[in-house]
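Objective 1b. Sequence-to-structure analysis of TIGR01459 family HAD-type hydrolase.
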Amino acid sequence: MNANTPLLIPGLEAIAGDYRGLICDVWGVLHNGVTGFRPARDALARYRQETDGAVVLVTNAPRPAGPIREQLGNLGIDREAYDDVVTSGDVTRLHIKKYAGRPVLHIGPERDLPLFDETGVTLGREDDAAAIVCTGLVDDTREVPDDYREQLKRLAAARLPMICANPDIVVERGNSLIWCAGALARLYEDLGGSVMILGKPHAPIYDAALDRLSAITGAPITRWDVLAIGDGLPTDIRGAVSQDIDVLFITGGIHASDFGPTDTPDEALIRRRLAEEGLRARAALPKLAW
């Protein structure tokens, strides 16, 4: 990021031609859990049409890709906008399979149970589990991480490893902030527990996305061919930067209140925050648009 080059750009079109593929975040960029963002959907569709590049959506959702595609369709994000989806659930399932034939303790809502399909594990109790698989809070509309403190103390004392299927700490659902599995994983580590996290900002999910882009295009795609689009500094932006992938930072997502008016963010504030976090971005937009 050159200090003399404007960071804020008018739209994705300004830099789209420099990349053969996009790795795009979902929650906060394409929707807020309640409403789909039509300009963001259109921007990805235009990218695919006008550059012949591929788009893989990468999300920390703790479920396989199938239910995510269905959710996206219900929110108006149709298949014209993307080629495929890679989820934290997808990469987490590969690790869960290492416990095939043994019980694991699931912490999370019933809607995440498809994560365990065809993994070979059974769902157990605290006293017989070989590991914990955390997908979130059971009732994220009413519970907070501290509600789990006593249970997590017991599990940490028993030295059960935790597999965290969603590294996000919080997400926006409509106008509300919702606690995610990453918050429980952070608490578990604070209590002395061992945690494995495979989604953003960690390498396995990026490796999976790059493999998927290469398969879609029929030719090897490297990190230098790709632009990552995201709104979360500790997940999307840190993850891409750690993998040497260029970033388009969507400032109007989870950090919108940090940069002034959502639709007209202050570039100096954006640059300062990136510097404070030890991060960088190729460009920034308040909201994804072409």
